[in-house]
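Good morning,

Both structures are done.
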Amino acid sequence: MPGLSACARTQPVYFSSSRITFDPGLAEILLVALERRGLLPASFDFRTAPQLILRSLVHGDDNEHCMWRQPYLCSEAYVQPGIKTEVSPPSVLSTNSRFSAQYVLLLGPLRSGCIGLCGSSVCCPRAFLVAHRHVSACCLYLCLNISIGPSEVSSVSALHVTATLVNTGDVELKLLNDPRTVLHTFETDTFAITDPSGNTPSFKGLVAKYVPAKVVERNLESSFTVLAPGASISVTHDLSKAYNFTASGESTYDIAASNKFQYVDAETNELVTIHADHADTHTAAVSGELAVSRRSSLGKRIAYQSCSSSEKTTLVSAASAAQTYANNAKSYLTTQTTTSTRFVTWFGTFTTAHHTTILSHYTKMAAATYSSYTFDCSCTDTDTYAYVFPDEFGTIYLCGVFWDAPLTGTDSQGGTLIHESSHFDNLAQTQDYVYGQTAAKSLAKSNSAEAIENADNHEYFAENNPAQS
């Protein structure tokens, strides 16, 4: 993998925290990176951050460590109070602002984790912040790149790229094979593809219902990718299945994979988000055939495809439950034209514009009778509830978890059909910004504009479990 040789580990150099030269301006740079990666608690006060950093450096804690990494060399130095081998790195800000994030500093209120900033040409962190008690040099770090791919193609059907994810930290990571990541082979919107003019191909792939907490609860071996320190995994993706280059045209495109992953914390069994650092993006010139047909036309619609008799029976009930959910949500919003606990929980602060948008979504969903949909039971994925192609109205593909879900209630069969139908282009055009009740509630609080576009928020509002008025 390009650049990894630059990250070869060297022997740690120990130094006394009292000898660190520190520039308070560095705090702002590190905090921006920390906030971006979700490592700051909600109660964190940015106004006192520089003082907290300074106190951590001066006073320290025998059970907590700071680490400094030189750019490109990746040599390490750990703050070990009581060890008097003294090394005093100069103030980076005073010498070269380009390397202003070299230091790794300890902040007491941070949750366990670490943060890295990666160079553009090498997959090597210029800064790490470690906030992990009782574990020396416990560092969680991933590097992601497109390791294999053509430099030019005369048909988009040949645009196959291999994404490689490397555990460059020193802790084993149990990563979810989330369909929104390169670890899954579903043709989801996993890549950022842009040409020099900012043009991007249109997404024509699938969107799926996936509940990370349920995956952790079931704990199937096939649901995870476990990477030991230094280990890697490579997954090949056919980009022609997910992207149509007709509108963006023939051009040279930069291709980068989505770098957001979730792993299971070994101590708490809780899900934690981690962002991989990118090595160089992959560049490919695309010409000739700019789109491929996804599949042959279904012709006359049928109610079921590849479904057993028992599955058909289940789907009749699920379609009825979904219809009831959509009708009830529409009725509720028609009569409840002011703020309510239920609305705020799932869609954030009430505004007339947002209320109008959500009402229009459920009105369209209720009108598109669920009993007239086509249901395809051929999906064999064990971690996904269902998926749709947003531009293929009326066809829902049911997967493994759907058949084990309750008919109604949270993450139910009826609710799954609400979730999936909301994705259709001619209904609500929802996205999958987040999955699961906890994340959906948080999204409503932090970003109501995205909450009203998120499929799970639509599902949970309709399921209304536990019931809210």
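Second structure follows.
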Amino acid sequence: MRSSFQALLLSSGLGAAALLLPAPASAHHAMAFLHMQPGPLAGIVSGLMHPVLGPDHLLFLLAIGLVA
């Protein structure tokens, strides 16, 4: 009984630590590697590519499509 409680406590502590540790931000957009000049076309392309480049955004859009 005691070892299962210790395992639960350890896993809870590790989970809390993982949530509290800062993750590196993806501050650089992948479109920056295409070397496009800033302007309306770059904004449109960036806006269209944004949901595809972030898997969390893509999953959200798919979920919205399923709900609709």
